[in-house]
Amino acid sequence: MKLSYLTKQFSTVKRWMATTLFCLLAIAFVWQGAFFSNTSAMADPIATLIASKDAGDQVQEKTSKDAGRAKNFIDDTADKVKEAAKSNASKVDESTDNGSFVERKAKKDAATIQKRADEDAARTKKAVDNTKNVVERAVDNIKDAFGK
Q1: Average pLDDT over residues 114-135
Q2: Measured by CB atoms within 10 angstroms of the end CB, which terminus of the chain is less buried, N or C?
Q3: 113 vs 73, 80, 118, CA distance in Å?
Q4: Quick one: average pLDDT of 54-82?
Q5: DSSP readout, 37-69?
Q6: What is the per-residue pLDDT for 98?
Q7: Under 8 Å CB-to-CB from 81, ≥6 apart: which residues?
Q8: Helices 101-147 & 45-95, crossing angle to 10 degrees?
Q9: What is the pTM of this model?
Q10: CB of 144 within 8 A of CB of 53?
Q11: What 3-state class would DSSP assign to 18?
Q12: 15-47, pLDDT tens digit by residue?
C-alpha cells in the first residue's frame, strides 16, 4: 500500500516532534542534575576515604564473625546427623537378634553416615573459609585502591 503525500508529511512531523521531545528531556535531566548534585563529598575527600577504610574493617569483622557462626552451625548439623545415625543403628540392634544381617548392615550404614557427615562438614567449612578469604581480599583490594 502506498502512503499518500499527506501521510508521509504527517509521519515526518511525528518523527521530528519525537526527536525534539527526546532532546528537550535530555537537556532537562542534565540541567536538573547540575543544580541538585551533592558537592559535599567533593569538599573533603580524605574524610570519605577514612570512612571507607572503617567500612572495610567493619565488613571484614562481620565476615569473620559470620564465618565462625556458619562453622558452628555446620558442626552442630554434623553432630545431629551422627547422633541420628547412632540412634537408628541402636534401634535396629534392639529389635533384632544378635549378629543378624540387618544389625550388621545398620551398624555399617551408621558408620558410613558418620564418616560422610564428617567429610561433608569439612568440605563445607573449607568453602566457608574460601568465601571469607575472597571477601577479605576484595575489601583489601578496594582499600588499597582508595588508599593510593
Answers
A1: 88
A2: N
A3: 18, 11, 9
A4: 84
A5: ---HHHH-HHHHHHHHHHHHHHHHHHHHHHHHH
A6: 73
A7: 113, 114, 117
A8: 180
A9: 0.53
A10: no
A11: helix
A12: 888 888 888 888 887 777 655 555 555 555 555
In this predicted model, which residue has the larger pLDDT, 143 or 74? 74
Angle subtended at Cα 25 by Cα 23 and Cα 27, rounded to the nearest 5 degrees: 70
Dist CA 110 CA 136 (whole Å): 39
Assigned C-alpha cell, 4:
499518500
Q: Quick: pLDDT tens for 104-122.
A: 888 888 888 888 888 988 9
Q: How many CA atoms lie within 13 A of 135 on its CB side?
A: 18
Task: Give the separation between CA 137 and CA 130, rounded to whole angstroms.
Answer: 10
| Cell of residue 47, nine digits | 574524610
**Chain-centroid distance, C-alpha 93:** 45
Beta strand residue intervals within 70-120, DSSP E? none
CA–CA gap between residue 27 and residue 133 (Å, rounded): 46
Cell numbers for 36, please give them.
541538585
Question: Residue 4 phi/psi, 5° resolution?
Answer: -75, 170
Does position 142 have pLDDT exceeding 60, yes or no? yes
Dihedral angle sign, alpha carbons of residues 82, 84, 89, 94: positive
